[in-house]
Amino acid sequence: MESASVKIVALLLCLSIGAIVVKAEDPYLFFEWNVTYGTIAPLGVPQQGILINGQLPGPRINCTSNNNIVVNVYNYLDEPLLLTWTGIQQRKNSWQDGTPGTMCPIMPGTNFTYHFQVKDQIGSFFYFPTTGLHRTSGGFGALDVHSRNLIPVPFDKPADEYNVFFGDWYNKGHKTLKKILDGGRTIGRPDGIHINGKSNKVGDKAIEPLFTMEAGKTYRYRMCNVGMRTSVNVRIQGHAMKLVEMEGSHTVQNIYDSLDIHVGQCLSVLVTADQEPKDYYLVVSSRFLKYAISSVAILHYANGKGPTSSELPAPPPTNTEGIAWSMNQFRSFRWNLTASAARPNPQGSYHYGKINITRTIKIVNSRSQVGGKLRFGLNGISHVDTDTPLKLVEFFGVPEKTFKYDLMADEPPSDLSKVTIVPNVNNATFRNFVEIIFENQEKTIQTYHLDGYSFFAVAIEPGKWSPEKRKNYNLVDAVSKHNIQVYPNSWATVMTTLDNAGMWNLRSEMWERFYLGQQLYFSVLSPSRSLRDEYNLPDNQPLCGIVKSMPMPAPYTS
Hints:
With 558 residues, the chain is mainly beta. Helices cover 8% and strands 35% of the residues. It has helices spanning 6-15, 174-182, 319-332, 390-395, 511-515, and strands at 28-40, 47-52, 61-64, 68-75, 83-86, 111-117, 123-129, 141-146, 160-169, 192-195, 211-213, 218-225, 232-236, 241-246, 249-250, 255-256, 258-261, 266-272, 279-286, 294-301, 359-370, 373-378, 381-382, 420-421, 425-429, 433-440, 446-450, 455-462, 480-481, 483-486, 490-497, 502-508, 519-525. Helix 4 links the parallel strand 23 and strand 24. It is globular. The model is unreliable at 1-23 and 344-349 (pLDDT under 50).
């Protein structure tokens, strides 16, 4: 591996012809990460985990809107590695998105320097590995983007900020889980729930406090569900939570006793230490599972006396009633239209409800068997990754050697029991305003994430979608976000402008489903092939597969 300083590497990146052009006043933040294996035991069972600089969760990227982030990643694993920065829009820069369709992986024993800008964004995000089943073994961490000092925030500065990661966990390692999926079987139910890589039960002795609060002060908790498949409910013993931000958008500041957080979703709440100074439980419990799993952590008051109470706040309803409860909570989430902050462009005028829809895509997920092996699909197509990233073969002008565009139709087929296993790449017209409907005819909840964009989550309802349902859309103050849940036998609609040129992954955040095909890529090409719309291939980008020995295409020009 190279031993040069990450700052020197970053400087060379900035000076190179293909590098990202940034304004001189936009600061740079530099990080050097060593990705290694290490023994962890989130549920008390020792296993091989993926650590970054020896940590789980990994190092926090704490930055400000428009900062340039330079992360030199050394891969000390025995497998190829990619990291994605979920929720970061990578404006004009899908080269840095960290998905198998956009980048060659970082091979074992080598390093790669990511370089991207958190352009016009604020909020709570996270990074994680997209290769194989690495996500099941860790490798995740916080990416917090603050507003610039001149931009007022719609709440007082908290005494401190705390990142809380939780999700379901499997005691089998990522290699074993991958073998199960490659063999055509499901990985089954998770073994438990972790909170920041640890799991505790009520009454456990000598639990180390997760965080400490001082009486009378208010704290910001940035919470993310980094699990594999399980929605969770979060509540804090004796304390209310004021929702202030969700996936990069300031929200109307409603008060909640508990919040459902679905796989891949993040939000921020303010918690005021206004109770008797002692210890209190933070509770994370599963949602919509036949069997309940949960974990607790301790929030400690400085100078507090007395143990936690064993009486936990009650969870919300379950089964059908629980779905209705959760759906109603979703409807209570509203975009704070009076807040000053970085906003999606060009929807920042707030009048997204008055923009004419130029394309409607209705997507139905499915579960099926192909050759006796489990597969998941979207509209009858089950995606498979290619040896050469899709973005590279497109940039080099040879997509026909790897994939065909538009094999997935904008409407689902009548028979969803059969799927075709092929790369799933959908052409999208630059700057079109699209309506995407997700319909879930299965009995399990789904969550979806779109790279490169935020979208307006305008509706979630039970049953099947029809054009008449548009009258129920929230066309005024739907939250702009990047992840949407779709409840069993229900549908959800999102709207966005495809104004970010690149190759962008739309995927199930249930990683078993992602790995076995429930994903696609939108190819959004600018007809002008201009640096105004998309950056050139970075000079340090590794090449692989069929493009490795091909001559470089002519670069984009201004």
